[in-house]
Amino acid sequence: MSEGVRVWCDGCYDMVHFGHANSLRQAKAMGDYLVVGVHTDEEITQHKGPPVFNEEERYRMVRAIKWVDEVVEGAPYVTTLETLDKYNCDFCVHGDDITMTADGTDTYHIVKSANRYKECQRTQGVSTTNLVGRMLMLTKE
Hints:
This protein has helices at about 20-30, 40-45, 55-65, 80-85, 110-115, 130-140, and strands at about 5-10, 35-40, 70-75, 90-95, 115-120. Strand 1, helix 1 and strand 2 (about 35-40) form a beta-alpha-beta unit. A five-stranded parallel beta sheet has the order 3-2-1-4-5. The longest helix has 12 residues, at about 20-30. By secondary structure, the protein is α/β, with parallel strands linked by helices. The protein starts with 5 loop residues before the first strand and ends with a helix.
């Protein structure tokens, strides 16, 4: 029995907010089954800096989003064809912002060059970086 079109998304999903949910909603609309990979604390720290929530908390937060059918713990930071194939995903979806490794490489360059990449629209004005900045502004006296 076929599950139809399987879609892969991945990310840090730190401090999950409406922007994350909106991108996953858009990704799910591009297929029938949504697999979401969540990066480890170690990989996030290496490429972006330490996350606010630990990986176990982030796994739980992503599982709670209604459009997510399956969560892959410890997804690689650079999305590969092997990862898509391992989870039988037809393509990868990410927002229209570029995500890079610590050395400046596009984390989706492999799936883009294989034409197994689609974009969804970012939710303007909502990002984890923006939320952290807002929280820091609230603590200033």
